[in-house]
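Why do we bother with holo predictions? Because pocket geometry can differ from the apo form. Keep that in mind while you read this record for aspartic acid.
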Amino acid sequence: MKRYFLLMLTLWVSLIAFAQTGHKPAIAIHGGAGTILKENMSATMEAEYRAKLEEALTAGYEILETGGNSLDAVVAAIQVMEESPLFNAGKGAVFTNNEKNELDAAIMDGKTRLAGTVAGITTVKSPVAAARAVMEKSPHVMMIGQGAEQFAKEQGLEIVDPSYFYTKKRYDQLQKIKETEKQQLDHSNEQGSLLPQFPDQKFGTVGAVAVDQEGNLAAATSTGGMTNKRYGRVGDVPIIGAGTYADNNTCAVSATGHGEYFIRSVVAYDISALMKYKNMNLKEAAEEVVLKKLVDFGGDGGVISIDRAGNIAMPFNTSGMYRGSIDTQGKLYIGIYKEE
Ligand code: ASP
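The structure, written out:
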């Protein structure tokens, strides 16, 4: 009798384990949206972007394929892009008006709906790792500036000199934008207005969303923000619900675009809410927000999103978005421009 009971128990436990691991993993990433046109891109540059996106996707997918969790996968994918000067995150981040690199990042666990974010940090090599530490090692959700840096250091994360993030390309970009802005200001001063504008931009933020074999979702995003940002400006990335969100009941979302609009449109949570309260599917919800609501509002950008079944939607309302995915069939896709 005792033997029979043990046998049944083992069978039952195995059945539960099987049901829990019955999900096919999938991952999607972005490396920013914006005015990305084929005529402005050299073949070498394009090949570099495609190769780096593939490397990031593969780093995340390998973890999922071998039974790892979605949080580890999104962090691994993002760290490949943070370390590449091609993207506006980690090394290669854009410059603030006073010529610094101030980094924001976020991560959210769809299973527990725990989240961690950091903003305005200048010395942590991997901002997404700092966000994860906030989520897992502190009772808080958001830490900013020096406090966040001190916490990251205490957690043993790699600390670098701020010059690590410098790239000449981004520095020159800032100088060009400042010059344009100066001309605009001189002109608008004549007309009595002092409002500076962000000129047309490329948003090079990086993000990843994934579903693992247990059906758990995760989303993470990392950025240098907007070129020429001022006065401790924080964008949508570390605002949970704006640039980053994950809930196993709906979807995981990571955004890229003009942060101010994404905050006011509560983009990532809105997509989740349309699924939850209006029963929209992932594609309908993501397109409703990015292609209708944001367009009416004047917010440029896009999102990557995934649901538990591994469906992926990556709408954007700009001319391009660096993006890629490996779906539940293991099929790799990389895209940059609108039609591909
Ligand atoms: N969303 C980011 C921000 O506003 C910028 C980007 O997507 O590149 O900070």
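The pocket of aspartic acid is lined by residues 32, 88, 203-205, 223, 225-226, 235-237, 243, 256-257, 259 (CB under 6 Å).
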